[in-house]
Amino acid sequence: MSDIRAASWPAPRRSRRAPGPARQSAMREHNLALALREIAFAPTPVSRADIAGATGLTRATASSLVDALVGAGLVVESGPTARARGGRPATGLVLSEAGPAGVGIEVNVDYVAVCVMDLSGVVRSRHIEAGDWRDEPAPAVLGRTARIVAQVAAESERAGLRLAGAALAVPGLVRAPYGPLQLAPNLGWHDLDVLEVLRAAPDLPAMPLTVDNEANFAALAELFATPAEAGASVPRSFLHVSGEIGIGSGIVLDGALVRGRHGWSGELGHLTVSPDGPDCTCGARGCLEQYAGLDAILRAAGLPASRGTSLGGVPAVDRIVEAARAADPRMLAALESAGTALGVALAGALNLLDLDAVVLGGAYAPLSPWILRFVQQEVSGRLLSAPWSAPHVRASRLEADAAVLGAARSVVQGVVDDPAAWVARVGA
Amino acid sequence: MSDIRAASWPAPRRSRRAPGPARQSAMREHNLALALREIAFAPTPVSRADIAGATGLTRATASSLVDALVGAGLVVESGPTARARGGRPATGLVLSEAGPAGVGIEVNVDYVAVCVMDLSGVVRSRHIEAGDWRDEPAPAVLGRTARIVAQVAAESERAGLRLAGAALAVPGLVRAPYGPLQLAPNLGWHDLDVLEVLRAAPDLPAMPLTVDNEANFAALAELFATPAEAGASVPRSFLHVSGEIGIGSGIVLDGALVRGRHGWSGELGHLTVSPDGPDCTCGARGCLEQYAGLDAILRAAGLPASRGTSLGGVPAVDRIVEAARAADPRMLAALESAGTALGVALAGALNLLDLDAVVLGGAYAPLSPWILRFVQQEVSGRLLSAPWSAPHVRASRLEADAAVLGAARSVVQGVVDDPAAWVARVGA
C-alpha cells in the first residue's frame, strides 16, 4: 500500500534544500503550504482542528505544521474561533501582520512607485515620485528607485516587518522572473539586465528580487482585489488593460496569469488597428498605442504630448480629464476615437481568448466616463460570441498604482505558496 | 506517516464509479493511468520492471496494473525488450492496435469527413464526402454524416476494433465537450444541439459522443503529430490556423489547448483587419475572413465564390491553386493581400499570446507557396518581441483533414488519460 501512495504523490517542486530523506521532507513542505493556504483563504479565523478536517491530515500533524508556521512568524493566534466544536472554543489562526512582507516597485514612464504589503494583504506604506524618465539613463532612474526602496525598507523594519523580497514592475517585454528586459519602448530602454542595475545601486537593501511586466502585476492586483476593492466580485477570467503612455494587458484565465512562452504575452498596445496607420515607437504602423495611448489622445485633441511636461507639471491623464470635464469638443472626439480603437483591439483579444470580462485599468479608469461606452459598443459589435455571453467591460476601482500593488502581492503570494522556504530562511 | 501521504495526494477526479473504499480505488485509477502513460509515451517497448522503475511503484503493483491493462485490451505484449536487465530479456509492452479506437467526425462547409484511429495512433480508415451544405438543413447533413459513421463503424468492428466513442468537429462556436453549437456562421447554423441531432439519426451506432471546434481538434492533431508527420519537431506552444471558407485557430500553450472560458477561443477569422472594411457574415466589418477566407480570395481574384460550386465540382482551394500555378496576376495579387491580412492578424495574436510558432493548416497549407512570405513579413514587422525570438511560421504537413484526425485523437487520448473508465466499461 505505502508504495502506491508514494508513487501517486505529485512530483515535488525542485527544492533548494534537502534535509533528511527527500520524499518525507518534500511531503512536509507540501503539507505546510496546504495548512497555510487553509488559514490564508478562510473568511474567518480557523482552528488547528479545522485545518485537520479540511485537509485530511491528522490533528497531531496539523498542529505540528501550525506550530512551525507560528514559529516562523507567518501565522498568529487570534483568540477563540467563532464556531467552537463540542462547546469548547478553539484557538483561531490568522496570517501575521508582523511577519514577512513584500516590496512592490514600479518604474513607469512618468513615475516611480514603491509599496510594502504585509502577509495579510494590507498595504503598509506607499511612495510615489512623479517625473519623466524618458531623457534619463536607466542607472539614474534605478538608482533613484533604490533610494526610495531603502527609505521604505527602513520604515518597515521599524514597524516590525521582515521584508521577504521585492518585485519590480516594468512597462515592457521582460523575461520573468529574473530578466533581462528586452524592450521598454516608451522608456527607450532595451536589452538591459534591470535587476543587476538595480542591485548595483548603493542604497538597495539586500533582498531577493524578481521582475515582471507591469501589466501582469496589475492584473494580479485585480485578481486578488476583494469584492469591496474591486466594486464587484472579481471574475476568474479577464483581461486587465493598463493604459498609460503605452498600453499593456494582463491575461487571467481561470484564476491564473497566462504569461505566454517567455512572459511576453498581453502586448495589446501593439495590436494593429489599421495596417496603414501612423508610425509606432515599436517600428510598426497603426498600433493601438497610436490611437489610444495617452500621448495619442493629447495629440488628437490638439494638445502637446506629455514628453517632459509631467516632470514637475501636470500628468498627461490629469490634463486629459481636465479638458474632458470642460467638454472641449476636440478632446471628446479624441476620447471617442481612442475608445473605439481600444474596443476594436479588445474585441480581437476576446475573439482569441474567450474571457468573461475586461477591466480598464491605469489611466483608463479615470478616463472611463468618456471612453467606456465606445469600448463596449465595439466589443459587442465585433465579438462573435457576444450574443451568447457578452463580456463585462468595466473600469478598475484600484488606484493607478495597481502594478506596484500586484508586484508586492506576488512576493507575499510566493511566501504563502512556499512557506517552507521562509521557514528555512528564518531558521525556525 | 500514512495520514500525511493520504492528505498530500491530489484530489481524485470526480468518479462515476465507487467500488470499495473511495481513496484506494482512486489511487488505483491514478496509477493505472500512470502505467499506461509510461507505455504510451515510451519510444520503444517497455517492461513491467521499467514501469516500476519509472513510477516508483513496486514490481508487484506494476505487474498487477499491467495485467489489468492487458486484460482490458489496452496493452499487448510485444516480445522481448531491446535492453534486457541482468542479461535476461523482459517482455515488452505496447499499446494495442486491436483495442479501443476513436471515431473522428468533421462537418465542414464543403465536406464531411470520418476517420477511425486506434489506440496506438494509427489511422485505420478515412472517408470523405465533398458537398456544399450551406443550402441543406442541419438534420439532413448530420443524417448523411451518421450514415458514413455507421459504415465506418461496421468496417472497424470487422477489423477487430472496439469503438470507444466519437468526437464531432464543427466550424463554429461550440461549448465543448457536449454542445450546444452557438453559431457556425458559414454553415448558417445557430443555437443547435448538434449531438442530439446526430444521435437522432437512425443509422448512428450507440457510443459516447463529444463535440468541439474544428480548429481546436486540428491543433490537437498537430500537437500529436510525429516529427516525421510534421516535417519538423513540433513546438510546445503554437497557434494552428485552420483556413477554409471561414478561418479558425487553435491555441496550444506549453503542450495544452487554451480553450478559453466556454471553449470559444481562437476565433482568428473575426479579428478586425480594418475597422471600416467589408461586411462579414458575423455582422461586423473588416474581419480577417473577408480578406483571407477562400471565398474572399476567389472574389478578389475575380472568380465566382465557392457557394454551390464545390458540390460535384472543383473545391475552392483547388481552383485557387490552379489559378496561382498558372500565374494569373489577379490571383497572385489576391493571395498577396490575403497573406498580408493574415500576417497582420497573426502578429496581433502573437503580441497577445507569446507563442513559439504558427502552423498554417487547412487550405492554407497548399496555398503556402503563395502566401507564406507575406505572412512572415507582417509577423516579423509587427510583433514587438520578434527581434528577440521570432516565431517560426510554417505550413502544416498534415492533410486538410487535420480536424477529423484530432477529433479521433481526442477520443483515443481520453482512453489513455483514464484507462480505469475503459476497464470498468469492458468489465475486465
Number of helices of chain A: 15
**Total number of domains of chain A:** 3
- What is the C-alpha radius of gyration of chain A, as a whole number of Å? 23 Å
Task: Summarize model confidence as the mean pLDDT of chain A.
Answer: 87
Which runs of chain A of at least 5 residues are low in confidence (pLDDT < 50)?
Answer: 1-22, 308-312
Q: What do we call the CATH topology of the largest domain in chain A?
A: Nucleotidyltransferase, domain 5
Specify the oligomeric state: homodimer
Category by helix and strand content of chain A: alpha/beta
Largest sheet of chain A: 5 strands, mixed
Helix content of chain A: 40-55%
Index terms:
homodimer; 428 residues; alpha/beta; Arc Repressor Mutant, subunit A; Nucleotidyltransferase, domain 5; five-stranded mixed sheet; 15 helices; globular; disordered N terminus
